[in-house]
Amino acid sequence: MNHLFGILFSPTDEWEKVRQDSSSVAGHYLKFLLWAGLAAPVAWYYGSTTIGWQLGDRVIRLTSDSAAQIMVLFYLAILVCTAFLGYMIHWMSETYEAKNSTLGKGVSIAGYTLAPLFVCGLIGFYPILWLDILLGCVAAAYTVYLLYVGVPIVMEIPSERGFLFASAMVGVGLVICAALLGATVILWELGAMPVFTD
User: Fold this and answer.
1) Structural domain contains residue 194
2) Which domain holds residue 62?
3) CA atoms 177, 179, 183, 186: torsion sign
């Protein structure tokens, strides 16, 4: 968690510190991802069951059981997708001649790059549809920026090669998003669909 505020407010300096960090995958999960990834599901559970979304004169809420099931799946998706992105960063590092590549570094880059989205997930405590969309877009844009800044620093490669590497990772991220949409449809068909209160 020490890197969280640095990544958000002084990314170039903080990526230098991440490069020197020698955490393993398990260490990175224990120190950061298990906790940071939990923030959004907890916030959205509370917001979707207690506050709800205001649509005209109607408030829409999820039942507690439905929200719990969805948020557990959401949390698992965060952990698994971050690990997969970290693995892909490590796997592609040889192609881009990275000098400082370990699986732990790949997961570190993936986890800290996603920090704006983890923080943005806290808006789930009080869901307002237009604000959620606006802040989500800002957080996604900052996430992409962090990836482009961080990859060349942590992997110790020239910025031109880092740009290509980060662009490949953006492509992987888009494939992960598409896969999550497909998985969501399948899970809804298997019974994990939202159930709303009346």
Assistant:
1) no
2) 2-189
3) positive
For 103, the token pair is 């699986």
Q: Could you tell me which residues come within 8 angstroms of residue 101 by beta carbon, excluding any fewer than 6 positions away?
A: 90, 93, 94, 155
Residue 181 resides in a domain = yes
Does the residue 198 lie in any domain?
Answer: no
Tokens describing residue 180: 């999550």
Domain count, the chain: 1
2 pLDDT more than 80: no
Give the confidence band of 4 by pLDDT, cuts at 50, 70, 90.
Answer: confident
196 found inside a domain: no
pTM over 0.85: yes
| Tens-digit pLDDT profile for residues 146-160 | 999 999 999 999 999
